[in-house]
Amino acid sequence: MKVFVTGASGWIGSATVAELLADGHEVTGLVRSEASADRLRSAGATPLAGDLDDLDSIRRGAAGADAVIHLANKHDWSDPANSNRAERASVETIAETLLGSDRPFLFASGVAFAPGRVVTEDDRDTPSGPDAPRGGSEALAMDYAERGVHSVSLRFAPTVHGAGDHGFIAQIVRAARERGVSGYIGDGTNRWPAVHVVDAARLVARALGSAPAGSVVHAVAEEGVPARDIAEAIGSGLGLRVESIEPDRAVEHFGWIGRFFALDLPASSAATRARFGWAPTAPTLLEDLAGGSYFAA
């Protein structure tokens, strides 16, 4: 199968490309730089120059593919409105290109927002419209499932971890190093779902050939890791004391990630595991932290 991947050189994207190539697919990846293009060529894939603002390149990549996996996102936390607009525009461009073809369109999303209870694949991500988080892209893409687009939502845990991660956990580690203390917010009992990047990539590759149109896939290996346990593992790795941070000081201590680190967001992947026979085998989040890669100089 010819597969077009946006974000092909990114954190989840590069791991996914490796899995797709191992499965015998022909991969074309959207890349923003020549360095990324070189890495993609070395892996055995074909680069296509462009970014999320280059809708012509996205359209061209989708038109020439048997399936599209959309993993790119600006993740500009200083200007979320811009990230949301770009996400919505790219999803709409891909869906319009695939309209009526029944070709698979797998796209990255996050677990549904329902703080305090365990969300499942049956929970719908209700925000819609260009001003919604991620530009309401899940609702938009799912609307196209009734118009001949084989849309599949890939909901990733907030923490997709592993050696080389520069996402949420890396930001929390950075805050601990800069502040000289490893913190958690409040009593630290709030839970964060997690998945190793290798397990996530394997699930994406598996879902490509078997996820029904309009379905939701949960890339969640751990239902919820308590924030205090995360802070204690970071404190141990950096040799720092661990302490509670008052909620009103969360952003001051952690930076922008402080707005999220206090949330209780447990999520289940029971239906995903049963449907796809997916059994995560890579290290857990706390095992990854104990391994030391997050604390390398």
Automatic annotation (TrEMBL):
Instruction: Report residue spans for region: Disordered.
Output: 118-137
Q: Which organism is it from?
A: Microlunatus ginsengisoli
The NAD-dependent epimerase/dehydratase domain covers 3-210
Annotated InterPro entries: Epimerase_deHydtase, NAD(P)-bd_dom_sf, NAD(P)-dependent_oxidoreduct
Q: Which domain of life is it from?
A: Bacteria
Write the protein's name.
SDR family oxidoreductase
Q: What Pfam families does the entry give? A: Epimerase
